Amino acid sequence: MFQVRESETPEDRAVEILSRLSPKSLLRFKCIRKSWCTLINSPSFVAKHLSNSLDNKLSSSTCILLNRSQFHIFPDQSWKREVLWSMINLSIDSDVHNLHYDVKPLNIPFSRDDHNPVQIHGYCNGIVCLIEGDNVLLCNPSTREFRLLPNSCLLVPHPEGKFELETTFHGMGFGYDCKANEYKVVQIVENCEYSDDEQTYQHCIAYPYTAEVYTTAANFWKEIKIDISSSTHPYPFSVYLKGFCYWFATDGEECILSFDLGDEIFHRIQLPSKIESDFNFCGLFLYNESITSYCYRYDPSEDSKLFEIWVMDGYGGVKSSWTKLLTVGPFKGIEYPLTLWKCDKLLMVASGRRVTSYNSSTGNFKDLHIPPIMHQVTDLQALIYEESLVPIK
């Protein structure tokens, strides 16, 4: 509960109460009074609502946005890809450790090609950055607003013949530039040519990466400097924290690539030194205002995986220290973790593309029933989500 100060007016108290409601309720209230509509649309109220959402320490539940696809194959052998979004609220009884969850389907109303996946490539303040085919979109699932970004200034059409430059999307990040007070999208582009008509990896001539930044205020892309080796391969999905975007990357060994949204400079960060060489780092997620990475060791004789969860101390800089948070397993039938939703609880992908929650304190798994029951599930992604009123348009 919030405290009422003696100096507060009834209007102040009304604003305080409204700023703690869900976006769904507030969007309805905008239709009740013109003054409420003006208030809810105001930048100061949007900022206050976001601050309350991010600082809600009393909430016992964790909200997770889940994205996945399933295929439908028809008798004539045609097919389409259905993209499914769900909002999952997870909570647990502190005394008996029972897991409770509520699943709500989401319908994001932008048009799309039924053959392309919709993949999340960044998230910040309730806004997700998506790629669908050749399109880049910003979307606020809470308000159901979206914005289609203009075409890249660096990506060119696929070449028709040999000795022509081929450009490929190779990593995207999205976040808030606190210095400029605006949201930005950064894109890394791989450039290459082929030595002959056989467009294979063996015949590929790699050129330096290029990069570009899109700002929501200016609504266009601009090329920026990037100084990383062409042997560095960032994974497409990024994690945003406090003015920086982070990618899991490889350049002969696993590392993290970071990007300062304010200075627009890339950095390379070392992952924890692996004491045992058979552990492989695989990805990043955000937990409790910290960059978190996981690695695993596979035992072929037992067909099992042992996982370690590491937390980065500090952020942004080239040098960072790491602390091991959890060791879980070995497990049979567990593919990889999706996210850490409490300090000892992991949302994981199990065999058959099932989503399951693991409680490391009790050692218990619980599968989540997420309708519709799906077959041939692909592109599973999950992130800790905070609802917001932050506008897209």
* Mean pLDDT rating: 85
Taken from the alpha-carbon principal axes, the silhouette is globular
Strand order of the largest sheet: 3-2-1-24
- Strand segment count: 24
Distance between the termini: 33 Å
Q: SSE order in H/E notation?
A: HHHHEEEEEEEEEEEEEEEEEEEEEEEE
InterPro entries: F-box-assoc_dom_typ1, F-box-assoc_interact_dom, F-box-like_dom_sf, SCF_F-box_component
Protein name: F-box associated beta-propeller type 1 domain-containing protein
Pfam families: FBA_1
Helices and strands in order:
Layout: H1 10-18, H2 23-29, H3 34-41, H4 43-54, E1 61-73, E2 79-92, E3 99-106, E4 118-124, E5 127-132, E6 135-140, E7 145-148, E8 166-177, E9 182-194, E10 204-215, E11 220-224, E12 233-241, E13 244-250, E14 254-260, E15 265-270, E16 280-287, E17 290-299, E18 304-313, E19 321-331, E20 334-342, E21 345-350, E22 354-359, E23 364-367, E24 378-384
Antiparallel strand pairs: 1-2, 1-24, 2-3, 4-5, 5-6, 6-7, 8-9, 9-10, 10-11, 12-13, 13-14, 14-15, 16-17, 17-18, 18-19, 20-21, 21-22, 22-23
What does this structure look like?
The chain has 393 residues and is mainly β. Among the domains are: 48 residues, no CATH class; 92 residues, no CATH class. 9% of the residues lie in helices and 51% in strands. It is built from 4 helices and 24 strands. It has a 4-stranded antiparallel sheet with strand order 3-2-1-24, with no helix packed on it. Strands 4-5-6-7 form a 4-stranded antiparallel sheet, with no helix packed on it. A 4-stranded antiparallel sheet has the order 8-9-10-11, with no helix packed on it.
